[in-house]
Every structure is written in C-alpha cells, then in structure tokens.
Amino acid sequence: MRIILFFLLLKSFNTFSQDTLMPNVILDDVIIFSDENGFTVEDFVKNVRTDTTFYMGFKNLRYYSHNYSSELLMLDKKGNRIASQKRKGYHFSNGKHAFLDRDSIYDQHGMLTRSGKYKFYTPEAFDEVFFPSDTLSVDLNISKIPASNESKNMRDAKNVVFSIGTDNIERSSAGLSRKLAIFDLEMQKYYDYVISDTLFNNYNCYVFEIRLKESLSENEVNETLVKNIITYFDKKNLNVLYREYKFKYKNLLIDLDIFVKVKMDYFFGKHIPVFIYYKGYWDFPLVNRETAIFRLINTNFIFN
What we know:
Number of helices: 7
Number of strands: 12
Strand content: 35-45%
Oligomer: single chain
Strand order of the largest sheet: 1-6-7-8-9-10-11-12-2-3-4-5
C-alpha cells in the first residue's frame, strides 16, 4: 500500500454500475452542458473516469528521450532535513527500449547505509517509478494486461493515480481500497463534485474537483482517505493538463498525509508531464515513519 499513494492502469467504465450511480454535480455559472451540444454532465463525468490521456502522457515520458533533474528531501518529525539527494541525467529511448544515460547523483547526504543501500523506502519507490536501473521496453500502446516485470505495488500505484475512483488494487491495508472508490454510492455522501473552468498556462480548461463537503463532521472527515482531487482538462481535446491529489488518513494501524501535483504540457503535439511534486509522510506497522519532499522536472524532449 505504501507506493500506492506515491503515484502514485487503466480501468475503463462503460457505464455507471448499480453501486456507482451518477453523482450530483455542482456546475459553475459559466459552464454550460446540454444534450443539444452533444456534451452532457454525465458525458463529462464519464470522461473523467475513463480518461486515458493522463496515463498516455506518462507513457510518452518513457517513450521519448529527454533530460531530467530531481531533488528528494527526507525530513524528521519536526520538518528538519535528515537526508537529501539531487540527480540529473538523460532518459534515452529509441522507440523500442529506454534506459538512463549519464544518470548522475551529484549531491547526496545521509541517504545510504555503509553498504550503499538506501536507508529509506521512499527513494526506492521513486527509483522504481522514474529512475529504473535496467533497460525498459517502451511503446505507446495501452494494454489491460500488466507488464510481467511490474511489482504489485507498481500496478496498484498506476490504478490509483490513473483511474480516479477505482478500488481495483491488489494490496490493501485497513480497508483503504473501498475509501478510494469515491464515486460509489456509499462514498458520495462525503463529497462535492464540481465542474468549473480556468485558464492554465494559456490553455482554456474545464476543472473537475472532488472535495469534501463542508457540512461533514470531524468524524466523517476522518472516515475518508481522499480529501481532494483537482483536474484541469484542455477544452480542445480533454487532455489532462494538471492534476493534484490530497490523501490523508489515520487509524490504529496507519497514519498518512500525502499531496501530489502533476503539470503537463505539449511538445510538438505530444502530451507529456513536465513537473511532478510530492510531499507527505506515512507510518505503517513494522516500518519506520518517513516524511519526504520530491520534485522532478523533465525538459528538452527529442522526437524522432
């Protein structure tokens, strides 16, 4: 469950099931949906749930060569830095295989044991997601069949991040999987679903926000895991251009508070994540508490 809330793959929904009826949606005054223009509120919400553009953006990230730079900070309970790592390099891809070239960790303090292994789980998780040590097979096909070399944690992370509202995860702790199903009837009582619009990086966007109802009691707020999800969709093609997640939950077994933000952009018509930010902590049984801040910037894409 640990990596699930990092990135934190796709599960399509052709319609709303009996236990996942269309939620009540709040429309901003400037948003107009109607049957006449062929795009209704239900169409839009269905698009949110079945969106593949966010996932495809991350497939593009591995498929196309680019430069990257990142920073990871590990913090103590008081927010003081106890370890850090900066790295930069070149992600090379020939369209079939990809690997890291000139991967350089140039500023690292307190991150490794004497034997050269990580002291923490967090950098291992980010390495698996963004900095694989082996050569990868890459393509631009979306398959429902999981890659044979992916861990269960990785598959679960993809489902949580790329399929909003899914509870289709293989590993679950303390019943958290059902709390991820934020479109299900039993969870709709906790949330407002709001559609508005905004201008983001000069792109006109629809905004879809899932947020806790203001009328909830403290106990009801504590029953939820997903506190907020905001997505910006490009009005021209409904590509995801921005998404942020807020997860927070505590009981006798686990304690977590995690925020993730992803910014996307276009390069020669290709839709790619350019900035990824993570801040949070988690504390699970038999594992030391970890608090971290992570930033990743991707630039200089090459399209053959």
